[in-house]
Amino acid sequence: MKVTARAHTNIALIKYWGKRDKKLFLPYNSSLSLTLDAFYTDTTVSFIDQKEDVFLLNGELQSKEETQKISTFIQRFRDLSSLEKKVKVESWNHVPTAAGLASSASAYAALAMALNELFQLSLSKEELSIYARQGSGSSTRSLFGGFVEWQKGTKQDGTDSYAVPILAPEECPVGMIFCLINQEKKKISSREGMNRTVETSPFYSGWVESAATDLVQMKKAIAKKDIPMIGELTEKSALKMHATTLGANPPFTYLEPFSWEVIRKVQEWRQEGHTCYATMDAGPNVKILCPKEEISLLQQKIKETFPNLETICSLPGSGAQILSIEKNEKKKGY
C-alpha cells in the first residue's frame, strides 16, 4: 500500500519556545497558531522489503543522520501496530526548509498522518498530535486547520500534551502576508536556540509566565473575532520571544536589520490606520497578520516601500488530510 498525505504549515501567534522534556518534546508553555494554506508538505509512505528505512526529500536521498531521525519517528508507529516493516518516505516540501517558515511542522504532520493510515492505526487527530509532537513540536498544531491550541499538559508521559482546534479556517477573519527576507538555512536551529535560551537566558521565566496570560487573552479575542486584539497579542508574543534570545549566553538573534525595517514599517502603517501586525518565528522572515480584506492593499504598500522584497499572501488553511491511497493487488495468473 502507498499512502500520500498533505499538511500545511502553521504560524504561532502565541509562541512555543522551550521544552521541559527534550525527549518527548513537552513545552513549558501552551501555544496557539493559525494554519495557513500558502505552504505545505506532501508525503508518500509505503512498505519496502529492505533492512533499513529510506528517506527522500524533494527527490534526493537523505543522509544517514536525517534518515535515522525519520526511522526513530516511524518506530513509534511500528510499536503501536506490532508491524516491524521498513518504510520508504518520499516527502516534497513546498516551503523553504529551516528558514523560519515552519517547514518541520508541515513535514511531520504529513508524515504522521500518512503513517497512521499505512499502519492502519485509526488514531484520531488529537491522539495523532501526541505522536507528531515527538518529531516536531509545532507539527502538533498542523494536524488541524484555522486557529489551533497546543495544550502543554502537566503529565510526565506527555499524554495530555496535544492540539485542539479553536476556530475553523472558514471562520477565521484574518490572513497573513509572508515577507521573505532570507530563505537560506539558518545558522542556529530552532532546537539549539530553544535549548540555549532555556538554559541561560534570565528573561526566560518571565516569558513562560506572560505566555500563559497572553494565551487566555488570545482565546477571548478569537471568540469575539477582535482582530486588533488578536494582532496586538500576536506582535507582543513574537517580540517577547525574540527578546529572550538576546539574554541568552552567548546572546543571539534570528532577526536581521532588514527584518527590523519591515517591523517598523508595519507599526507605522498601523499608526496611519491600517490593521496590521508583525510576527516572526525562529528566522528572519516577517509575517504580517491582517484582516482578509486588507491583504491586497497591504501587499501593494509593501511592494511600493520595498520593491525587491518577495511576498506571499496566505489565507487560513485546512488540517492535515489523506490525498490518496494506492493498493497493489497481485493478479492471479491462469
TrEMBL record:
EC main class here is lyase
Q: Name one Pfam family in it.
A: MDD_C
**Its domain of life?**
Bacteria
EC numbers, comma separated: 4.1.1.33
What biological processes does GO assign it? isopentenyl diphosphate biosynthetic process, mevalonate pathway
Which keywords does UniProt give here?
A: ATP-binding, Lipid biosynthesis, Lipid metabolism, Lyase, Nucleotide-binding
| MF term (GO), any | diphosphomevalonate decarboxylase activity
Q: Read off the InterPro entries from this record.
A: GHMP_kinase_C_sf, Mev_decarb, Mev_diP_decarb, MVD-like_N, Mvd1_C, Ribosomal_Su5_D2-typ_SF, Ribsml_uS5_D2-typ_fold_subgr
Taken from the UniProt entry, a GO cellular component term is:
cytosol
Segments forming domain Mvd1 C-terminal: 177-313
Domain (Diphosphomevalonate decarboxylase-like N-terminal) spans 7-163
> What does the sequence similarity comment in the record state about its family?
Belongs to the diphosphomevalonate decarboxylase family.
Q: What is this protein called?
A: diphosphomevalonate decarboxylase
Origin organism of this chain? Catellicoccus marimammalium M35/04/3
Ranked from the top, the taxonomy reads: Bacteria, Bacillati, Bacillota, Bacilli, Lactobacillales
